[in-house]
Amino acid sequence: MPYTKICINLNPFSFDFNLLKPHIALLSEWGFYFMAKKRVSIKDIAKALGVSITTVSFIINGKAREQRISDEVTQKVKKYIKEVGYKPSHIAQSLRLGKSKIIVFMAEDISNQFFASIARFIEERAYKSGYKIIYCSTDNNFEKAKELISTFKRRNVDGFIITPTPNIEESIHDLIEEEFPVVLFDRWLPEVNCSYVIVENKESAYEATQHLIEEGCKNLAFVTVESDQTQMMDRSSGFTEAVKESDVNAFEFRLKFHNLSEVGPYEELLDFFKSKKEIDGVFFATNYLAFEGLQALDTLQRSIPHDVKVVSFDDHYFFNLYKPKITAIEQPLELLSEKLMETMLSHLDELNLGYSPVRLVLPNKLNKRESTEN
Question: Any idea which UniProt keywords this protein has (predicted)?
Fold first, then answer.
């Protein structure tokens, strides 16, 4: 086709739209559109024509005859695809060209023991299934996460396992629209219809708080971070519910989110415990808060468990080395990793059937140790 350059002045006050008519067919043939439109998916085509997603997928991938799909249905689908300007998605291309066999694992901080352990288990399962894992940290930063997702999409990876950051909903939604398999973990997004594998945050926080109360604590503190993410909100909710059911006093102390390499919470916790000398039980919402909180309590010479009893969410090998040993909620890391990969591999095996979200909530274990003993 010879090259034609078309320059059009689209000033609405001076442009004569009749001048555009001779070029409409040419522009349409080249695939240009004058109005922004939502990307058409295989699911949209199937719904519009009243056929199954599988039927549309077979036709797109040239398998209509092999699957004994009638010529009438085949032509109807092909005609509609041309009319709506459907372009093969990442998945359709993968079906024809082969998979990259690479899965992205996006964690909040890959150096954190929790995320590192999950990554190690996932890598082992992925390798056995013929996949490789790319690791990266978002630092719970939306802009960084968005940029990473964009980069890996261009690299044509097969799927994403993501710890979502604040405000990442649109990027996750776009991944699903483009038919990338996505599985969230550690937290989920209420506004996005997406697969996730998480733990019982609220139930475990309730159990841990009840344990402190049963051990005689009357003035409890819940130390957490400023966050409206689901896992932190659920832990706060579990603590609050247990307190309301008992005759105890409670304080909730929130710190700004920080990376493990940053210093700051220790000083704030030191000031908090100085001002609340009556506190006799502390529940730390994360283990990294517990590390700094234990240091602050030690500085103030608050004896554990005699002066104050301590529980932490998310067990750590350090808690077994500390004197006294720290009571903590243990997340099922191996099971969590297994279910993450099981869900991801299931999505990858069923690419042509559309995205059906899987939602799994796994139980934790409260390891009772010396820090809560009488």
Answer: DNA-binding, Transcription, Transcription regulation
Between helices 265-275 and 287-299, what is the axis angle to 10°?
60
pTM more than 0.85: no
CA 54 to chain centre: 28
17-85 against 95-198+335-362: fold identical? no
CATH topology of domain 95-198+335-362: Rossmann fold (3.40.50)
Which CATH architecture does the domain made up of 17-85 adopt? Orthogonal Bundle (1.10)
Three-class DSSP category at 241: helix
pLDDT tens profile 263-282: 568 899 999 999 999 999 99
Q: How far apart are CA 209 and CA 289, in angstroms?
A: 17
Q: What CATH number was assigned to the domain covering residues 201-331+366-372?
A: 3.40.50.2300
| Count of CB atoms situated within 10 Å of the CB of 189 | 17
pLDDT digits (tens, 9 = 90+) for 232-264: 999 999 999 999 999 999 999 999 866 554 556
Kindly give the pairing relationship between strand 102-107 and strand 132-137: parallel
